[in-house]
Amino acid sequence: MQRQPLASGEPPRMGRVIPLFAPGSDEALVAGLRARDPGAQRTLFEQHGPYVQRVLARVLGVDTELPDLLHDVFIEAYEGIDRLSDPKALKGWLASIAVFTARACLRRRKRRSWLRFVGWDELPEPPSTGATGEMTLALSRVYAILNGMPEDERIAFALRYIDGMELTEVAEACGVSLATIKRKLSRAQELFQARAQREPVLQRWLGGET
Amino acid sequence: MTEPTKLFELGQIVAEEQDRQLAQLDTLAQVREQLAQRKPRRGGQRVWLALAASVAAALALLWWARSGANALRFEVAGRPGVSDAWMAAPEGGLPVRFSDGTTLHLASSAQARIADLDQKGARVILERGRAELAVVHRPGARWSVSAGPFEVKVTGTRFSVEWDAVQELFHLNMMEDRWR
Q: What is the mean pLDDT of residues B21-38?
């Protein structure tokens, strides 16, 4: 193929060279995301999808809205990547979007709760089948209690005690100071323990050493 | 703030059970596909489905308002009549009155039914006997009487039809004009 000479007076054609995305550090990933590279977007999901799903599940429990919320978190991340100032904070930033999305979901459910004939925590228990059945029952009772707690306390409790995040990570994900998250956790702990007293299946995890 | 160890133990058990449940779901694959194709999430699809259902319901309501709701009604001897139900006139005859003022009178032992009732008129199917019809003239009115192989179409007139199915005799007696 022969290159066509530019006609006289015609300005030279300008182009932009976009390098293909090659997975590597978080900095490279964020650079790819900022360039709206589909490869970088896929990589973000592959690397962090399971983590974000876990954060959502810890806060909300495993429910039918999980796929929608996970989708929302990544769309928000793709579109809002320019707001991330430090690429090294990518994982924590995704956690904060997940927490924000989960909180919005909880508020939406609360607003619509008057439409429900049966409350989230009033549904019948699934049948117990041995050890796994007992675990399933414990899981459902824990979320029944969390469903009755204020959103901020619930989120803090779920991230700290169920997901096992460090206090600083919980504070970052919730977008508050360490002191604030400690107060929220203290309150959440009191609320949870008071309500768990009424749940026979949770008795063995109450009280004891600190 | 002191944190009870047992709460962490409970949390760990809950997390393990939750991870077991998550492993049984195909959430990640589902969302991966949605993101790759930039499909609207199911919630979005639900909104569109709800909108489509609302539009369909509005159209159905419009259609109902334009057709069914405005269709003529009729009474048989003072009681609400039913389309396509056979009427047999007793001794002394059977009066039928339509909501546009049109009247039908079935003579003794006549049998008929009302079909194709809409906002413009109806079709009177005369099985046998004599029927007298006084049609109120309205723009676009469409009335007809079927008797055996005969059909009388009218827009506003007063006439009687008699049909003897055994003898195959058809009588049409016009009292006022406007017929074809």
A: 88
Partners of B13 on chain A (C-beta within 8 Å) are 135, 138
pLDDT at position B15:
93
Residues of chain A contacting B33 with CB distance shorter than 8 Å? none
Tens of pLDDT, residue by residue over A25-42, are: 888 899 999 999 888 999
- Chain B residues with CB inside 8 Å of A42's CB? 35-36
25-64 in A: which are within 8 Å (CB) of B?
Answer: 41-42, 45-46, 49-50, 53-54, 57-58, 61-62
Per the listing, tokens 């699934």 go with A126
Q: Name the pTM for this structure.
A: 0.57
Instruction: Please determine, for residue A129, whether its predicted confidence score (pLDDT) is greater than 70.
Output: no
B100-121 in b/e form (b: 16+ CB < 10 A) is: bebebbbeeebbbbbebbebbb
What is the 3-state secondary structure of B119-147?
Answer: CCCCEEEEEEEEEEEECCCCCCCCEEEEE
The model's pLDDT over B112-163, given as tens digits with 9 standing for 90+, comes to 989 888 888 899 989 889 999 998 888 888 888 888 878 888 877 888 899 8
**A170 neighbors A185 (Cβ within 8 angstroms):** yes
Closest CA to B34 of A72, A88, A163: A72
Q: Tokens representing A116?
A: 């429900």
Give the integer Cα–Cα distance in Å for B22 and B74.
64
SS3 B171: strand
Residue among B1, B13, B28 minimizing CB distance to A138 = B13
